[in-house]
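Below is how a single chain appears once it has passed through the pipeline. First comes the sequence as given, then the structure the pipeline wrote out for it. We keep one example in the README because the format questions we get most often are answered faster by looking than by reading.
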Amino acid sequence: MKIEKNTAFLEQLFEGVYVVDKERTILSWNKSAEELTGYSAREVVGRHCYDNILMHVDDKGKNLCHAGCPLDASSKDGQVRDVSVFLRHKKGHRVPVHVRSVPLRDDTGLINSTVEVFSREGQSPDTEQLKLLARKAFMTH
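Resulting structure:
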């Protein structure tokens, strides 16, 4: 599968994004994924996502890579998944992230790959907080 041309736009996203094939081999890894995880594309592309790279765990510490993987489940049943998990950064610490796994289909409708989009949990701006800060910025003392 020629993934580079089809996913060039992913480099423009703030979210970490990677694409895997049916065997969960990493085909693409964007710059934001590098920044959020500490792993370069060169270190992960061509490896399986379950090769002890990110080691996703849930809030109870259960390893999801071999049982309960949202990416794997989406690739099998075609459903989009949204979950909060913890990934392991290259430096060893855990990072809370929100993960969305989306199956990708070929021209015949068969799932041929799956994309995972992830962002640091709690990093999305709080709209009410932003409004409050904007009001304060325009107040005079």
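The beta strands are 16-21, 26-29, 81-88, 94-105, 111-120.

See the next section for the split statistics.
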